[in-house]
Specification:
The chain has 76 residues and is mainly alpha-helical. It has one domain (13-75): Arc Repressor Mutant, subunit A, CATH 1.10.10. The protein has helices spanning 13-25, 37-45, 61-75, and strands at 49-51, 57-59. It has a two-stranded antiparallel sheet with strand order 1-2. Strand 1 and strand 2 form a beta hairpin. The two termini are 24 Å apart.
Length: 76
């Protein structure tokens, strides 16, 4: 039996929700200062989101991949 090793940092439920919201807003981005601000900062620190010069957060390519592997996988 093959053992699959999980090597990605754990995302709390609130941060998974913030990651999903970033996919929903698309290019518009999420503004800073919202209730999920700490999660957006954590996602930024993990390289899953980036803060633009206008202060809004958007997904990085890594964030898109993590959303696909962690959020969409659970939905299916």
């Amino acid at each position: 039996m093959d053992v699959v090793e999980w090597n990605e940092p754990y995302l709390e439920t609130c941060c998974r929700s913030a990651l999903h919201r970033l996919t929903l807003v698309g290019m518009v981005g999420r503004p800073a200062g919202l209730k999920d601000g700490p999660c957006l900062e954590r996602l930024r620190g993990m390289g899953l989101a980036a803060q633009r010069p206008d202060g809004r957060y958007e997904l990085t390519e890594e964030g898109v991949a993590r959303h696909r592997s962690e959020i969409l996988r659970r939905a299916g």
